[in-house]
Specification:
By secondary structure, the protein is α+β, with helices and mostly antiparallel strands. The chain has two domains: about 100 residues, Phosphorylase Kinase, domain 1, CATH 3.30.200; about 120 residues, Transferase(Phosphotransferase), domain 1 (Orthogonal Bundle), CATH 1.10.510. It is about 35% helix and about 20% strand. It has seven helices and nine strands; from the N terminus they run αβββββαββααββααα. The strands form three sheets. A five-stranded antiparallel sheet has the order 3-4-5-7-6, with helices on one face. Strands 1-2 form a two-stranded antiparallel ribbon.
Length: about 230
């Protein structure tokens, strides 16, 4: 029997995802009725097709097409976990995933939506599960975690075969417990979040002192509230 997600095949063939240099987000060319872009990354874009409601289609750029098979293998190894989307199959240039809804943690900070501790605990449990499958839970950040009710869903697994600890989640978990209580349910301006992201990406991780970085963050946040 042909899987029902194949109904989106013709629509997906009418769009093209184009990779860009310097780790910039992809761009999209083309159009198809009923096909909607719901997410854009540096390697792929995610689409929803009105004819197949339960699915999300992660379409890769030509520059990142080799990552599709890698990510498919990762999803097969973590299949069945409640902390990640389910993978139902693959096409020539896309993966078929369960359609996951909910704000990212980045959206929560922008909109002043309270993030309960259970979300943090879920991500930490997800990381432990990934390790138990012989993989490495890297690249978990504010835009890669959805909040669904008071639970978490991690939505990008593409770096789990890479070695080394990028410490991104450890730093976020520390910030949640030491900094977030002072800004919980407060809308954080976009310019502040983007400033923090740029600072963090530029720092030398070998000499990185989390407390010093957090002090700079709090000063920025306090200056915004006083203005």
């Amino acid at each position: 029997m042909i899987p029902d997600w194949k109904l989106a095949e013709n629509a997906l063939q009418n769009i093209r995802v184009i990779g860009n240099d310097n780790n910039e987000p992809v761009t999209i060319e083309g159009f198809a009725d009923g096909l909607y872009c719901i997410g854009i990354g540096t390697d792929a874009a995610v689409f929803y097709y009105a004819g197949t409601p339960p699915y999300a289609f992660k379409v890769y750029s030509d520059l990142a097409l080799d990552k599709k098979d890698v990510e498919l293998e990762i999803y097969e190894r973590i299949q069945g976990s409640p902390y990640f989307p389910q993978c139902y199959g693959a096409g020539s240039h896309y993966l078929v995933l369960s359609l996951e809804v909910g704000p990212t943690l980045y959206d929560c900070l922008l909109q002043g939506i309270h993030i309960p501790e259970q979300v943090i605990l879920d991500v930490e449990a997800a990381r432990e599960f990934v390790r138990s499958q012989g993989l490495n839970p890297r690249d978990i950040h504010l835009k890669n975690v959805l909040m669904q009710g008071d639970r978490a869903k991690v939505i990008d697994v593409s770096e789990y075969i890479k070695e080394g600890n990028d410490h991104r989640w450890e730093h976020l978990a520390w910030a949640y417990r030491h900094i977030y209580p002072s800004m919980s349910s407060v809308k954080v301006p976009l310019w502040i979040l983007e400033s923090i992201r740029h600072w963090y990406n530029r720092v030398d991780k070998a000499s990185f002192v989390l407390e010093n970085f957090s002090y700079r963050l709090l000063r920025l946040f306090d200056s915004e509230r006083k203005s």
